[in-house]
Design brief:
This protein has 8 helices and 9 strands. By secondary structure, the chain is of the alpha/beta class. The chain has 2 domains: 205 residues, NAD(P)-binding Rossmann-like Domain (Rossmann fold), CATH 3.40.50; 37 residues, no CATH class. It has a 7-stranded parallel β-sheet with strand order 3-2-1-4-5-6-9, sandwiched between helices. Strands 7-8 form a two-stranded parallel ribbon. Helix 1 packs across helix 8, helix 4 runs parallel beside helix 5 and helix 6 crosses helix 7. The longest helix has 29 residues. The two termini are 33 Å apart. It is an enzyme of class 1 (oxidoreductase). GO terms for molecular function: 3-hydroxybutyrate dehydrogenase activity. Belongs to the short-chain dehydrogenases/reductases (SDR) family. InterPro entries: 3-OHbutyrate_DH, NAD(P)-bd_dom_sf, Sc_DH/Rdtase_CS, SDR, SDR_fam.
């Protein structure tokens, strides 16, 4: 599944799922644009290290995904965008009647609106190139819901709906648009929460993983960032040329319940 000659822009990709996806695209030969809202030496070093490891061009471009103009500028600064992975996201947990308005606005802006802006900027590039792949990292919460996550669930359901719309608008072109819907993924952020949660519930870390964090994930195993990245690479391949407008769940059976 060589992606040599393709340029991939991955939002929110200096850690976690986004970084895992970026690494697998680079491994497959794509040039990669990493992104986050920071502009630190370590961000640019991350790009340099990845370029050296995989022998491809990797750049880091700062852009705040809560701001539409910066979302569009990210794609424009990339210069090319054959593969767009809309991954940037944040979370906040609160009852809806107590949900801070500023948190709602930020989650909708970063988790949903950013994908609108980047996709709108990328599609003309893809059409000019005659090929394109839009991959939206949604969530199991794009297909189901949990209490106290109203903004996140609303945004991820919106991402799934937009995925279908973009797929229909590009159905007669060599451009596809799909959503990956992960369940719980083992990222540094999740791993860091395990000891505190174990202390809170007076459980062992293994018990916390199985009974609290992975309560709704029947496999009782985390998905990995490599698995999410591999799914993205597959969606970019010729094998997936007729897969468009759909969701692929990587959730250990969560949405089968």
């Amino acid at each position: 599944m060589s992606l040599k000659g393709k340029t991939a822009v991955v939002t929110g990709s200096n850690s976690g799922i986004g970084l895992g996806v970026a690494r697998e695209l680079a491994r497959a030969g794509a040039s990669v644009v990493l992104n986050s809202f920071t502009d630190r030496d370590e961000d640019h070093q991350l790009a340099a290290d990845m370029a050296k490891e995989f022998g491809v061009e990797v750049r880091y471009i700062k852009a705040d995904m809560s701001k539409g103009d910066e979302c569009r500028a990210l794609v424009e600064q990339a210069g090319a965008c054959d593969i767009l992975v809309n991954n940037a996201g944040i979370q906040h947990v609160s009852p809806i009647d107590e949900f801070p308005v500023e948190k709602w606005d930020a989650i909708i802006a970063i988790n949903l609106n950013s994908a609108f802006h980047t996709t709108a900027a990328a599609l003309p590039m893809m059409r000019k190139a005659g090929w394109g792949r839009v991959i939206n990292v949604a969530s199991a919460h794009g297909l189901t819901a949990s209490p106290f996550k109203s903004a996140y669930v609303a945004a991820k359901h919106g991402i799934v709906g937009m995925t279908k719309t973009v797929a229909l608008e590009t159905a007669r072109e060599d451009i596809t648009c799909n959503a990956i819907c992960p369940g719980y993924v083992k990222t540094p952020l999740v791993e860091a929460q395990i000891p505190d949660t174990a202390a809170k519930y007076n459980m062992t870390e293994d018990e916390v993983i199985e009974k609290v964090i992975l309560e709704r994930q029947p496999s009782k195993e985390f998905a990995t960032t490599e698995q999410i990245g591999g799914t993205a690479v597959f969606l970019c391949s010729d094998f997936a040329a007729q897969i468009t407008g759909t969701t692929i769940s990587v959730d250990g059976g969560w949405t089968a319940l």
